[in-house]
Backbone:
RNA sequence: CGGGGCGUAGCGCAGUUGGUAGCGCGCGUGUUUUGGGAACAUGAGGUCGCAGGUUCGAAUCCUGUCGCCCCGACCA
């Protein structure tokens, strides 16, 4: 089955440049870096071992942080009774249009005997929904778990797949099925729930994005129109892509008492009164991989921050006959030393591929560092070590390779963040006139982040979106410059504004 | 759902007065190679998306149908 025939692949090697076609650059990179592939079902993706190893690394770090902040993992079912969705009106409104529905439990031969059809005899009495998110099934369960204030708070997370029948999909950025974690907590007070939502935003998501993914993010609160269906308010982190758009990398919602009321979850307080609980939910998904690619990668392929890279160092032994045996032995020895220090290494001792082929191969796949081990190097006692995010190769004495690599991996992690931060800085604009604002978002492509004043009304927000395709990504919680938090006048209407908000074209 | 494009080998494509399918890459084998995507030789691989129809004969013409990609509406 041919799925991406519009992708005009120039050859089986290489990818388009970001400059020539950013969208194709991304699409081809994802596939050629072995991060994901198309599947026979539209919008679903196959994640091969290399891509999954990356996800596992992300998962592991996030899972540790989630547990560190007091949460436990649990698992709830994939299938949810349709009736559960009838209970929270806004939530239904938000998800009804994109639900996959299970209606039968058996297949049978069609009349002509040539194919299988759902057996009319086996239609379910109540259709089941493949979870688009798990609030409803979880709140139905929490009703059983919560009787007393002594049962609170409940701090639970689950790693799962969910399905949303998206009309237009893109590998990692928007797939019909995706992997994620979803946290669901219950609390006695509004303030405690808000503190929870903010803990996740600051201590987990923002920290993970910046310290592990090396992607700087804006933390903020969503406007009413961008708030999660069924939430009281939503917090988010927003990153900038290399084509100057915004990408929502994570969300943390304060659900108020909406779900508690919809699912009748009350507890008896210390004073003996019945009270509805307050709730949060929060999630990050495989979209983070798309964010990672868009933040750091280049025209040679994937660039991955060392903390998350499936392979951090690859050794390429060179030479022929005894020479090759010798270089391979040296490579394996150094690799073992690095592995002992917890570094993820690979020795590419494939016989048929040339060193040049191997260099390109691993560059495409985002290996952070490469060590060339050749006869010349061994004679000189220096090996060629290159970093994925730098052009030049360093000559390093064999004995100091392990220390050098260890130091450079740490340096690369920091440098990627610094570079991404500088890029974002260079593409943030503080704009106070409508003409300049409109001009900034004119034409195709993104316009970076525009920090501008907004009068706080949904009408103005919508109007600006219609005129420029830029939307309010968030109302920042912490400002880059103190003056961004000062009052001003709306860039469109001139009405009073409390602070600047982040405008951008979004993924 | 609207507009556009397209279904031929694993991938990218060619193939019209209708005559039973080809190229490049990749893949197997062998030899020579290997310092930034090696070369030659040899071989394997396709009921031309599916279903009808026209015809002596259909990848090609007709009808229907399914699917995919891009742009839009919707969305993490």
Residues:
């Amino acid at each position: 089955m041919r799925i991406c025939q519009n992708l005009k692949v120039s050859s089986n090697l290489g990818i388009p440049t970001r400059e020539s076609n950013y969208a194709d650059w991304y699409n081809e990179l994802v596939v050629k870096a072995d991060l994901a592939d198309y599947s026979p079902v539209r919008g679903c993706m196959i994640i091969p071992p290399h891509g999954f190893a990356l996800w596992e690394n992300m998962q592991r770090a996030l899972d540790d942080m989630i547990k560190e902040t007091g949460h436990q993992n649990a698992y709830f079912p994939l299938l949810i009774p349709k009736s559960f969705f009838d209970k929270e009106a806004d939530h239904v409104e938000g998800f009804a249009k994109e639900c996959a529905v299970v209606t039968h439990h058996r297949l049978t031969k069609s009349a002509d005997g040539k194919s299988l059809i759902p057996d009319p005899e086996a239609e379910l009495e109540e259709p089941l929904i493949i979870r688009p998110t798990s609030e409803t099934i979880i709140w139905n369960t929490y009703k059983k778990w919560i009787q007393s204030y002594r049962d609170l708070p409940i701090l639970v997370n689950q790693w799962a797949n969910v399905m949303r029948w998206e009309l237009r999909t893109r590998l990692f950025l928007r797939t019909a099925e995706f992997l994620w974690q979803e946290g669901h907590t219950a609390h006695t007070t509004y303030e405690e729930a808000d503190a929870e939502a903010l803990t996740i935003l600051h201590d987990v998501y923002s920290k993970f994005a910046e310290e592990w993914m090396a992607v700087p993010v804006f933390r903020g609160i969503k406007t009413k129109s961008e708030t999660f269906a069924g939430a009281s308010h939503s917090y988010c982190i927003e990153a900038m892509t290399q084509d100057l758009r915004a990408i929502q990398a994570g969300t943390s919602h304060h659900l108020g008492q909406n779900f508690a009321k919809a699912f009748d979850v009350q507890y008896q307080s210390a004073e003996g009164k019945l009270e509805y609980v307050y709730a949060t939910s929060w999630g990050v998904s495989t979209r983070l991989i798309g964010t990672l690619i868009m933040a750091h990668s280049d025209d040679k392929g994937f660039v991955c921050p060392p903390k998350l890279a499936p392979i951090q160092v690859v050794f390429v032994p060179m030479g022929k006959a005894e020479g090759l045996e010798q270089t391979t032995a040296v490579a394996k020895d150094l690799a073992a030393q690095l592995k002992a220090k917890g570094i993820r290494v690979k020795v590419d001792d494939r016989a048929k591929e040339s060193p040049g082929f191997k260099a390109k191969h691993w560059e495409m796949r985002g290996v952070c560092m490469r060590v060339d081990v050749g006869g010349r190097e061994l004679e000189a006692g220096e090996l060629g070590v290159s970093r994925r995010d730098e052009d030049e190769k360093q000559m390093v004495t064999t004995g100091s390779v392990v220390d050098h690599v260890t130091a450079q991996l740490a340096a690369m992690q920091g440098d990627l963040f610094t570079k991404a931060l500088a890029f974002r800085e260079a593409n943030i604009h503080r704009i106070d006139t409508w003409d300049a604002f409109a001009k900034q978002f004119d034409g195709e492509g993104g316009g970076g982040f525009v920090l501008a004043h907004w009068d706080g009304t949904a009408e103005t927000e919508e109007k600006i979106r219609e005129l420029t395709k830029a939307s309010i990504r968030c109302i920042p919680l912490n400002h880059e410059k103190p003056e961004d938090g000062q009052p001003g006048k709306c860039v469109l209407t001139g009405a009073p504004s409390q602070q600047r908000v982040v405008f951008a074209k979004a993924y």
Observations:
- The first strand of chain A starts at residue 37 and ends at 38.
- Chain A has a mean pLDDT of 92.
- Chain A has 13 helices and 27 strands.
- The longest helix of chain A spans residues 401-426.
